[in-house]
Amino acid sequence: MRACLAAVLVAIFAGVMWMDGRAQTAGPLVSGAHRFEKVAEGIYYATASGTMNVGANSPIVINDDEALVIDSEITPAAARALVADLKAITNKPVRYVVDSHYHYDHAFGNQIFGPDVQVIGHVNTRKRMLTNVMEQYTYLSSVQPVPARVDALRKRIAEEKDPQQKAALERQVANSLAYLEQVKEVKVTPPSLTFHPMMTLTRGPREIQLLYLGRGHTDTDVVVFLPKERIVCTGDLMESVISYAGDAYMEEWIATLDKLRALDFDTVMPGHGVVFKGKGKIEAFQKYLRDVLAQVTALRKQGLSADDAAQKVDMTAYRSEFVSIRGIGIDPAAVRRIYQLADHPEPAH
Ligand SMILES: [Zn+2]
Questions:
Q1: How many angstroms is it from 101 CA to the middle of ligand 1?
Q2: pTM score, two decimals?
Q3: Which of 165, 225, 314, 317 is the most buried (most CB within 10 A)?
């Protein structure tokens, strides 16, 4: 009995401490599999708390009567977790989901939303999701390497002395193995409401513009622009890290980013990485893309295979802006894609 009372007191005390801590630091709120960072009034940025593979980061827009979620995340399990975890920041129901593009880590949670939720995407997102996306390289590259990665992690766990590091590695193993189970539930579900090239949702005082600015990271990228709040949610068209380019249209991407920069915003909420301010990073990424194209085109002319060229491309000059660049060489999928489009151009229509 006494132990029980003590436990209750500890819990209450911890709760008070926690609330105090939050009031003072206003740091992100952790709820289940997600961490919610408040970006503006009613606007949050959901990222992984580390207990589950959730895939993309999801911007959340809370309106007068409902919440709008950008990206349903990587699996039905992640999407269900997001809906449950959202209760920590709002009691309003999710009524809109916007797919920033068709990639699995952004849109494979779509299926959990019932008929009272409108899932919106670009017309091309629907088209792409009606093809065999689960047999395509981009998705397969998220599942096929997992067993080897788990083996490598287990070797590191066996050698790791630091208990905290060990626990972090063990969590990675658990999340990776759980992901392989969670994907079994996926039934690819395209958006039911599509548009081109733009649509506007007016919800109370809030204006939410959904814009297709052209081909870039894919041919499905939607940008969510909140003109009053001067915020833009960019999916993988623009990240704070280097975006995957295995399905990209690199040359057009540079021009599409010009259109993005022409919008009047000061805060960017990207599909991966962290929220950032201003347009400097976008300009830097355009330079990066131009440089990748130039180097790959030259290596292709020399007769190198895409995979050999990928090891030679040197983007270390961009390290200060994109810390994920670790050394010489880039993702072979990006180079294979440039070769593919050079051999088989896909004219825009
Ligand atoms: Zn993507």
A1: 7
A2: 0.91
A3: 225
